[in-house]
Amino acid sequence: METQANFETGIGTKESIALKPALVKIENVDIQKVGEKGNEKIVCEVKHPDKPEHIKISSVKFIKGDKVTESGLWINFDEDKLIRKGSALAIFMNKLGAIKIGELKGKEVQTEVDSKNYLTFKAY
Length: 124
Prior knowledge:
This protein is mainly beta. It has helices spanning about 1-5, 90-95, and strands spanning about 25-35, 40-45, 55, 60-65, 65-70, 110-115, 120. It has a 7-stranded mixed β-sheet, with helices on one face. It is globular, with a radius of gyration of 17 Å.
């Protein structure tokens, strides 16, 4: 019946606040299954200086060849069951000096806006 209550909801007066790119600290790292196939993705809870609550970021911008590319922090393994060299996650981890996924916790990283106007990590 909650859907019925939504029919009575009016238009608000407050603008949504878009967070600006800033240096953020990774407070928590989680692995989440995404989509029908259950592919695994890294989701980082970060502390943004302009927001009291944590926000979640799960994508990164990095340089591939001669252009800036953006990608989700998907976990892709090689035949040795290690994070695939050259993947977006591996590039992000290398940029932050993390050898294991858990070592991302506590790291500070710059953010920027991606093509969908969401914050993403900057790894270049």
